[in-house]
Amino acid sequence: MIRGMPEEEFFVSGHRACAGCGAAIAMRHITKAAGKNTIVVQATGCMEVVSTPYPQTAWRLPYIHGAFENTAAIASGIERALKTLGKKYNILVLGGDGATFDIGFGALSGAIERGHNFLYVCNDNGAYMNTGIQRSGATPKYAHTTTSPAGKVIPGKLEWKKPLPFIIASHRAPYVATASISDIPDLYAKIKKGLTIEGPCYVQVFTPCVPGWGIDSAKSVEVARLAVETRVFPLYEIENGLLKITKDVKEPKPVEEYLKLQRRFRHLTKEQIEEIQAFVDAEWKRLKELEANKCRFY
Amino acid sequence: MAKSDNKLKFSTGAVIKEPGSTLKNKTGGWRAMRPVLDQSKCVKCGTCWMYCPEGAIKKDDKGNFVIDYDYCKGCGICANECPVKAIRMELEKK
Amino acid sequence: MPEIVVEASRAIALGVKLCKPKVIPMYPITPQTHIVEALAEMINNGELEAEMIHVESEHSACSALLGAQAAGVRTFSATSSQGLALMYEILPIVSGNRMPSVMAIANRALSAPINIWNDHSDAVSARDQGWIQLWVESTQEAVDTVIQLYKICEDHSVLLPGMLCLDGFTLSHVYERAVVPEQEQVDEFLPEYKPYVKLDPEEPITMGPIAFPDSFMEFKKMQQEAMLNAVEKIKEVNEEYAEQFGRSYGNGLIELYQMEDAEHALLGMGTLVGTARVVVDELRKEGHKVGLIKLRSLRPFPKEDLIKATENLQGLAVIDRHISLGYEGPLFSDVRSALFESDLRIINFIAGLGGRDITQKHLRKALLSLKEGKEGGWLL
Q1: Nearest residue, CB atoms, C196 vs list B10, B12, B16
Q2: Interface of B with A (CB under 8 A)
Q3: pTM for the full predicted model
């Protein structure tokens, strides 16, 4: 064990992710937390493409990839099949934000409503990275992507990110959490918890993308940490409908410190940065109120 | 461009029955910068091990962390994250 | 085995029950629903030990089918029309992963305009996606074929998914006499499901990898070989079934009616074959040497059997319940291509789209037009 986590790797070296890939860091620790008795279902996306070039696989767990938008449905079939066989394994469903927020949202919503026992983990890098950095429902406001380019008239994406964890929590999911590759022990613990709690659980992991965000490959963890420290990506859990902030950021850094390390935000004006700061402040205040007032998601 | 690879074996349904077989794909050749770990400075905290996207940092029998250059892509996260600055990045000599 | 009067949809459900599928993902769509409703009843009354997954779309139904089959169990689903169209993306993924899932397709027209009635546009459009397609004429054939399909699809020389195609309403909602086999008989005929691979932590495999241009073609070639193996397997299973249950359907791939000395013949799929039998009988009484070829297996396509069956014919009229817009009836294209080297005159009729009746008059006209050397066309 190193830092309380097993040394055994289930997502092994030799995969073809970019140098400094945030999602690859997440894959390693998510699978460590899940352990041997786990079936992985993965959506089409970077992590699928880099890990399964026939005849090689980076996975040391039983693994299936079907399509982009149907992992939650495939997992539903696996879960019910195992039930009829009298077997119980962890079912770990993996997808990027495109697969989760957008194209696979219907399948995920349906599977959660039906109450299948699985853990869905979204690696959130805020765009369709595998197809070349296109805007998704998880792309932050004003981010430059190849389909929301920062132009002379339109300065990148014009909308805020979809609040997916809240939407999932409102489905009566027993456990919803956010995590970041900057805090691996926390990620590890949340994955364990999500697999232990009966029913459909959801963890959204913040995973910076080196080419997609235009960051130095050495800085993907640093950028992820700044997202937490600026309150851009708050870490919390919603257990049985009650929200708890798991990382209280008492003295937040200005969002600019997070934004300035990324090429996708380099076109931002002072006003736009202020607008983002105001949004982040308001969202944090809302989280704090939800927590303090014990507001229930269901 | 692409031809049939005579060495490949084709399984029914393209099922891969060799778990962890990307280990055959040595990604060390991607590296432009090389992390060098100074064991005398290392406090063995495991931060580098934790943050390596490749799983290319391992703990040896003596409890020392070592970098597996067969797979290290030279991203530099380990050097950036090391709390005691025990890892420095050098230009890879090819 | 008493003969009962039963709706085809319920009869199929009874046939499915005898095959003991473990997972049944389903999404409602007319005219398929009576099949899954009957299965739901059986499950909820404790008569069938299976899990029904009430998925939120056909896309997810097909995906859950894949997941359950990959986990190592026998599966079943059913759909129609837009439902099959919504599954379309996943159809080649099920077949590419070589998962022998079985689905019933109560064939219905594709929109627009929206139309819930029968034609063959849904399944025929999906013919290239690596699923075996057996098309049936009657309730009895539907029950027998669903049992046969599991045996064909699961055979390790085949390992392909299969569609049982039946005409929506014209068959799915019709009450007919049929014999539903006994459980012991089916248990003897259909071995317990043994997956060729399954998702199991004891033996971690990777399914659904990315295949680069250096390997993709070989996997497609293997699927084609499996389809060719299915040609023999369908025949074999048809014979075995006949031995055990006393019923068979031609040679499993095609069924011939009054073809011994026929000079002109009709070829079609599904319930129109029943009407055609009557027309052939009547024309024979009038002295016309006519016959009928029922195509049961659209994929794999029984090329050799068709060549043999048409050796002594002078003309063949192919009835398509679908049109490949911009060309012709796709069944006609397939048949003509198979018979390319013969001198046979082949004409095409488009008929029965969107639930339009195919009447005896229509088929009589088709056969007589053929005999008189006229062209094909639309039987409106």
Answers
A1: B12
A2: 8-9, 11, 14, 16, 18-27, 30-31, 45-46, 49-56, 58-59, 68, 70-71, 73-77, 79-81, 89
A3: 0.97
Alpha helices in chain C (DSSP H): 8-18, 33-44, 58-70, 81-87, 91-96, 121-125, 139-154, 183-189, 216-245, 272-285, 303-309, 330-338, 360-371
CATH number of A22-292: 3.40.50.970
C209–B14: do the CB atoms touch at under 8 Å?
yes
Measure CB to CB from residue B16 to each of A13, A56, A218 and give the nearest one.
A56
CA distance B63 to B61: 5
Residues 6+ apart with CB under 8 A from C150: C19, C74, C100, C102, C162, C190
Note whether residue B11 is domain-resident. no
**A224, A207 contact by CB (below 8 A):** yes
Of A11, A19, A56, the CB nearest to B75: A19
ipTM score of the complex? Answer: 0.97
Query: What domains can be seen in chain C, in order of their start residue?
Result: 3-245 (3.40.50.970), 255-379 (3.40.50.920)
CA dist A53 and C5 (Å) reads 54
**Domain assignment of residue B10, yes or no:** no
Percent of chain C with pLDDT over 90: 99
CA nearest neighbour of C102 among C18, C174, C1: C18
C208/A contact by beta carbon, under 8 A:
yes
Whole-number Å distance between alpha carbons of C4 and C181: 11
How far apart are the CA of C256 and the nearest CA of chain B, in angstroms?
35
Nearest-CA residue of chain C relative to B3?
C214
Measured between alpha carbons, how far is A197 from A131 in angstroms, rounded to an integer?
Answer: 34
* Cis-peptide, bond into residue A138, ω within 30° of zero: no
State the angle between helix axes of A184-196 and A22-34 in degrees (0 to 180), rounded to the nearest 10.
40
CA atoms of A286 and A282, how far apart (whole Å): 6
The 10s digit of each residue's pLDDT in A193-238 is 999 999 999 999 999 999 999 999 999 999 999 999 999 999 999 9
Q: For residue B51, list chain A residues with Cβ-Cβ distance below 8 A.
A: 25, 181, 184, 221
